[in-house]
Design goal:
By secondary structure, the protein is of the alpha/beta class. It has a single domain, classed as 3-Layer(aba) Sandwich (Rossmann fold), CATH 3.40.50. Helices cover 47% and strands 19% of the residues. A 5-stranded parallel beta sheet has the order 2-1-3-4-5, with helices on both faces. Helix 2 runs parallel beside helix 3. The longest helix is centred in the C-terminal third of the chain and has 16 residues.
């Protein structure tokens, strides 16, 4: 990552406190972050802008993170996907339905989140260089 490239992250998390916590950590790590409180609110943003990563909770009202990821793959196939969840059974479902997506189980340390985001984005940007 050279020059003025700042990775853009779309964060979808229905828990207000968790969303603020994650957004602050990612911004502090140097990312540009747009955050929404539900999957349905993320769709128009995916259609309007280019995101390097969709970071989504899995269990959300209206549209869960897995459905959001499927829609993201259709709208913006270059966007990488990473899930956060507190439910082990949901982690298994996400792994089956989105095999290339990273799943981070709650609770996690913010440092671990930032390291995983860096790794996912590095693996994307570093390909073919």
């Amino acid at each position: 990552m050279t020059g003025n490239f700042t990775p853009r992250i779309l964060l979808a998390e229905d828990d207000d406190a968790m969303r603020a916590y994650l957004e602050r950590a990612l911004v502090n790590a140097g990312y540009e972050v747009d955050s929404v409180d539900r999957g349905t609110a993320a769709l128009p943003l995916l259609q309007e802008g280019k995101y390097d990563l969709l970071l989504s909770d899995i269990v959300m009202p209206e549209m869960d993170g897995i459905e959001l990821a499927q829609r993201c793959n259709e709208i913006s196939p270059q966007t990488k996907i990473m899930f956060v969840t507190g439910f082990a059974a949901v982690t298994l479902r996400a792994s089956r339905e989105q095999p290339h997506a990273k799943v981070l189980s709650k609770p996690f340390h913010l440092r671990d989140l930032v390291l995983e985001v860096e790794r996912v984005l590095r693996d994307t940007v570093g390909v073919g260089i």
